[in-house]
Amino acid sequence: MESKTFSPSLPPENAVNQRKRHAVFSALRKDWQLYSLLVIPVIYLLIFKYGPMIGNVIAFRRFVPGGSIFGEKWVGLHYFRMFIEDPTFWRVFSNSLILGGLTLLCTFPVPIIFALLLKRNLSEYDAFINELKGQGLDSYLELTNNTYKKYKEKK
Which of 5, 24, 42, 142 has its CA 20 to 30 A from that of 70? Predict the structure, then answer.
């Protein structure tokens, strides 16, 4: 007697792809209203998020005003090297870091101080001022008081 082994025949790969494609299209047809809600956000994303990235190619090409946005010739990192090797680059770079640091230093404590002020009763205001003076913020208090006085004088 011969023993037969069972070997199921697999559907061709093309048939599997057609079934998947049919499932996707039937889901789109079934819930088309839901998918239509995605059209405007996707268009916004393409125009305002991915669209400007096309212009980044200008940094690597020799750009001629009035010419193509993609420039005339590929120059690679030439303009970056030229910018970094410029004698004023490091001065401009350090000024940017200093201004950023000073902005952070001057604006960071303000919300914290306001939060502490709102947390306390107004009857404890003098104790709060003394606490700030104890932490070495005298100059900040003087600055705020002088600013307030100038504001009142203008009114």
Answer: 42
Alpha carbons within 13 angstroms on the beta-carbon side of residue 93 total 8
CA 98, 102, 108 angle in degrees (round to 5)?
Answer: 145
d(CA 94, CA 134): 33
User: What phi and psi, each to the nearest 5 degrees, are found at residue 12?
Assistant: -60, 150
- Please name the residue that has the structure tokens 């998918």: 35
**0.70 surpassed by pTM:** no
Mean pLDDT of all residues belonging to the chain: 82
pLDDT value at residue 45? 94
What one-letter code names the amino acid at 60? F
100-109 residue pLDDT tens:
999 998 888 8
User: Using an 8 Å Cβ cutoff, are 75 and 87 in contact?
Assistant: no
